[in-house]
Amino acid sequence: MLLYQFRKGTNPRRVIIYLAEKGIDVPRYELDYANGEHRSARYVNINPAGRAPILVTDSGLAITESAAIVEYLEELYPDRPMIGSDPLSRARVRSLERLGNDLIARGQLWLWNRTDAFPAKEPVPSQEMADRTHRYVSELLDVLEKEIGENAFLGRELINAE
Length: 162
Prior knowledge:
Blueprint: E1 2-5, H1 10-22, E2 28-30, H2 41-46, E3 54-56, E4 62-64, H3 66-76, H4 87-114, H5 127-148
């Protein structure tokens, strides 16, 4: 296996943290985002979206997207489960994960429209769009707050208990 990563990226960090928590040693290749390596013909041939992370399996299959990579690794290394040990707990973790992804995406849209500091992402920032996405972000934060409640962890309990 080989993990193509960009340590500063939010999606690759999810896989990096997962690997560290599980104690899984996977060979890694650090992409040079600053020089556009993720957009190079060689890399786009592996992942047409030109994003990280990608896990290339021993059979040569490229798995994109951090959630899919984590789920694949969880199947290979089921000891000390990190995404639940039964169907209900796995469903809850996946549900909260998707809510978190939605929060990040909407938060980025808000930021890109709140300032003109990201012309590559939003060439013409819109205060109207910023206001609308801020409402969505607030709604998602309210849902997360309700879901977490007084629990110490998103999954209500530490799933990775040894």
